[in-house]
Design a protein that fits this description.
The protein has 195 residues and is an alpha/beta fold. β1, α1 and β2 form a beta-alpha-beta unit. α3 crosses α4. The two termini are 22 Å apart. The relative contact order is 0.18. The mean pLDDT is 93.
Length: 195
């Protein structure tokens, strides 16, 4: 296992981390990703990212572990991964003409020899303004891209970009699932220089 571990099985996060040209391993933690009662979507993204990083850091002491999770929020309600065509259709119908917040939690954890843990975490929020979408457009999009494993039922790195009017973000990679600008800064604090 590498000294840098991505605590995720997500091919999207793996693809993003590969952009940095650094060696890393992947280890997918087995955690319950259920929504806690009365938990705000932003807090949920933070909690899940931290749980993933901490769990894998405990298994691989000394390694720097990256955890991340994304939660979409529409009018205060968390939108999960749809899983099916029908649920994805419902999500996109609800998002049509709306502003949806995508909270991407980022956490780094490193288990120290004295059993203390060095930790960093943040939540990066991206505002996505959806255009008005017809049933035909939604159906056509879903059949082409099948984004059933994506929060919000779209892939921003693909055809999903055609669903938007505007995107407001401090980090364009955050919407895909891993805020690379913040990650590079945090890795430097952990002693890992990208350049």
């Amino acid at each position: 296992m590498s000294n840098l571990i991505l605590a995720s099985g997500s091919p999207y996060r793996k693809m993003l981390l590969q952009r940095l040209g650094i060696e890393f391993s992947c280890y997918s933690p087995d955690i319950d990703e259920s929504h806690n009662p009365d938990e705000a979507p932003r807090k949920m993204a933070e909690r899940l990212a931290r749980e993933k990083a901490r769990l894998v850091a405990a298994k691989f002491p000394g390694a720097i572990v990256i955890g991340s999770d994304q939660v979409a929020e529409l009018n205060g309600t968390a939108l999960g991964k749809p899983g099916t065509h029908q649920r994805a259709t419902q999500q996109l119908q609800a998002q049509s003409g709306q502003v949806v917040l995508f909270h991407t939690g980022l956490a780094l954890a490193q288990q120290q020899p004295d059993d203390n843990i060095q930790e960093f975490y943040l939540v990066d929020t991206t505002d996505v303004s959806f255009r008005e979408l017809s049933e035909t457009q939604i159906d056509r999009y879903l059949k082409k891209e099948q984004p059933y494993d994506c929060a919000g039922s779209f892939k921003a790195e693909g055809l999903g970009i055609s669903l938007f009017l505007a995107v407001q973000s401090q980090d364009p990679s955050s919407l895909i699932g891993l805020p690379l600008i913040s990650l590079c800064s945090a890795l430097r604090d952990f002693g890992l220089e990208i350049l």
